[in-house]
Amino acid sequence: MNVFFRYRFPLAATFLLLSISARAQAYIGFVYPAGGQQGTTFQITLGGQNLENVDRVLVSGTGTEGRVVEYNKRMNPQEIQLLNEQLKELRDLPRQKCDAAKTNLITRLQKFIGDYVQQPQSASIANLVIAEITVARDAAPGEREIRLATPRGLSNPLVFNVGQLPEISAEPLPTSILQILGKEAQSLRKKKRDKAKDAPMMAMESMAMSMSMAGPGAQSDVDDDEVIVRLPCTVNGQIASGSVDRYRFAARRGQRLVISVQARTLVPYMADAVPGWFQPVLVLCDAQGKEVAYNDDYRFKPDPVLLCEVPKDGDYILAIHDAIFRGREDFVYRITLGELPFITSAFPPGGQLGMAAMVDLKGVNLAETHLTPPTKDVKPGIYQLTARGKGGLLSNRVPFAVDALPDGIDSEPNNTPKNAQRVSLPLIINGCIDTPNDQDLFQFEARAGEEVVAEVAARRLDSPLDSVLKITDAAGTCLALNDDQEDLGAGCNTHHADSYLAFKVPAKGLYTVHLSDAQHKGGEAYAYRLRLSPPQPDFALRTVPSRVVMKGKDAAGITVFAIRKDGFTGPIRLEVKDGAANGFVLQGAPLVGTQTVAKVTVKTTLAETDEPVALVIQGVSTNAGVALVRESVPTEDRMQAFLWRHLVPAQEFLADVYNPATAPKEPKKWKGKGKGK
């Protein structure tokens, strides 16, 4: 069952308070391109609002630096008229008085006025910041976070990638015009292309392809709307309304191509779009226009992936567009294409804390098919694993869960009550629904009055399994059944497909747990972790927003959400980890009983900070005399499709303190102390 998740927490007024307090906060809705190659310097465009006096670009991790080049505020018609008058005065200056600086200013004004849109399709992304990013050669590849900062504000984070492949980026899209019913054609925008700039590259690529493609069926003519690329590479683009972007490349028979898109992962939710994100579609055709491969979703994720073997030597054209041909500046994508490593399944999907584990990988273009994830000196949780391909290229990431409970593997055949696998509780079973219509059965003995929890972790571990749990007694009578359990910490997952049952044993005897797929599907990727245990009361925390900005020796409010597990009702005291040493404390009453939402205050003793400080908000409680300390996940409150609200995880919770009496003499410097991925 597909569920579009929205908050079900009490105190609905909390969200009104959040939106009111966030109005003055800096906001960015897109970054383009959303990454760059190691060892390069390039410009990016960020669109947002409340960005006046923006002075810093913050990228988490080490090895990246950013600086603000230009800020283009959205103008009203009167301001544009004034700029036109000033431009006319500059043009009328005698040539001898028009130096290089004035000529440059005239060029900038002409471009700014030429790009002006009186009614932008989205005003919240119409203020533009141009920034320069430098990525060191040894910067760790993977996902980072990028933010903008003003003297009195920090923006929300967006995903920013450090890549290993050569990158190609089209010119940024102009601001999209507001679509008017019946006049939609007026809002269709053509991308700007610098043909003079592209000509040398296109000529060299065309010559290289004509040499390699000589033979029957070879074509040398290239459509003006196609961009010629050479594999492997990463292409960056923005989809305009009604547009299709096409990339032409040469490939050889037998090559195992991996073509993967980042789009929804870059901008997780859009408040004014249905279904609430850019829904990309990939189509790969040969030079004659025959379709070779197609994908619009990779399993349950909206970002498509094409895994295909090239059928013959020749040119191929990759097309990308939105499923219903929407588009504007924040419809940003990154496509990596080539013979790249890609993991399609990993088993087991988790392991026991402190016990050695070996993960078997399946996929394409992998140089290693076994990984030994860290299970010692780590905390219980979900970690990301990557494998290597040719030339040290890294694969996609796959999650691996680490838990303190004993660990086991399901033993086939176990798909009928007669051959059900006997287990002893507590236990976490790593298993797989190997084939369509398969089911795994597990039997355990229990006494009357015992409480048993059966919980599946599959979708949260990127498994396509849509689990169903059922518990029967020795006579086969169904005593409990669950399909989907709402996951309040789902973030970007809108299909809550993992099952959960809390079951009180009615009488001493043998009981059977049935696990299957709701859609009767199966395969080597349909892995799961099934927890069978007495209740393990615990909690998790989410903090909104992922940053605070305050005046010196002042305070700022945040909201903390508690996710109570297995009936946990203990009081949760909230605090800033090592806060006293950093100059920050948290003030507010603890979460008690079944309370799940708390408004608290972060207070500082500092007069000012030179750069944002990474803080950790944590909750402290006890269960059966055992201390529980859980770090809160920083999140951003994002709206989807005009209504639904989601807590999107961030990598860091940042605090920035400013002195209102002192105007900044120079922009603050960001040293990038955040965690790289």
Describe this structure in words.
With 677 residues, this protein is mostly beta strands. Among the domains are: 184-340, Jelly Rolls (Sandwich), CATH 2.60.120.380; 351-391, no CATH class; 407-535, Sandwich (Jelly Rolls); 539-658, Cadherins (Immunoglobulin-like), CATH 2.60.40.60. Helix content is 9%, strand content 41%. It has five helices and 47 strands. The strands form eleven sheets. A six-stranded mixed beta sheet has the order 40-41-38-36-45-46. Strands 2, 4, 7, 8 and 9 form a five-stranded mixed beta sheet that branches. A five-stranded mixed beta sheet has the order 10-12-19-14-17, with no helix packed on it. Strand 22 and strand 23 (370-371) form a beta hairpin. Residues 1-23, 193-224 and 673-677 have low confidence and may be disordered.
Q: What secondary-structure arrangement, pairings included, does this model have?
A:
Blueprint: H1 13-21, E1 27-32, E2 35-37, E3 40-49, E4 56-59, E5 64-72, H2 77-91, H3 100-114, E6 127-135, E7 142-150, E8 153-154, E9 158-163, E10 167-169, H4 195-212, E11 226-228, E12 233-238, E13 245-251, E14 256-262, E15 280-286, E16 291-295, E17 305-309, E18 314-322, E19 332-338, E20 342-347, E21 350-352, E22 359-364, E23 370-371, E24 381-385, E25 398-403, E26 407-409, E27 421-422, E28 427-432, E29 439-446, E30 451-457, E31 467-472, E32 478-482, E33 500-504, E34 509-517, E35 527-533, E36 538-544, E37 547-551, E38 555-565, E39 573-576, H5 579-582, E40 584-587, E41 597-604, E42 613-615, E43 617-623, E44 626-631, E45 633-640, E46 644-649, E47 653-658
Parallel strand pairs: 2-9, 10-12, 11-13, 21-25, 26-28, 27-29, 36-45, 37-47
Antiparallel strand pairs: 1-3, 3-6, 4-7, 5-6, 7-8, 7-9, 12-19, 13-18, 14-17, 14-19, 15-16, 15-18, 20-22, 22-23, 24-25, 28-35, 29-34, 30-33, 30-35, 31-32, 31-34, 36-38, 38-41, 39-43, 40-41, 42-47, 43-44, 45-46
Helix pairs in contact: 2-3
